[in-house]
Amino acid sequence: MRRTQIVARMQQGFAGASPDTSLFPADTKMFEFGLNYYFIDGLKGTGSYGREFSSEGNAKVWTLGLTYRFVVPLGNAWRN
To answer: Where in the sequence is the domain holding 8, given as residue range(s)?
Structure first.
């Protein structure tokens, strides 16, 4: 269980003045909960379920993902 994380997130978005520049078509609230599992350092699998509530209708949101983190050095490292 030490490689597992239980996560929850609440977010809210507002419709912009112009539909062309707005991220959401209507004011929206979204709640998600899920699970992260770290296979090795830098490799993470994630799965979540959520609900989206807006004036245009409610929707279920399922998310599955695989994330690999890598680092590229930008210069010489400090040496003692």
So the answer is: 4-68
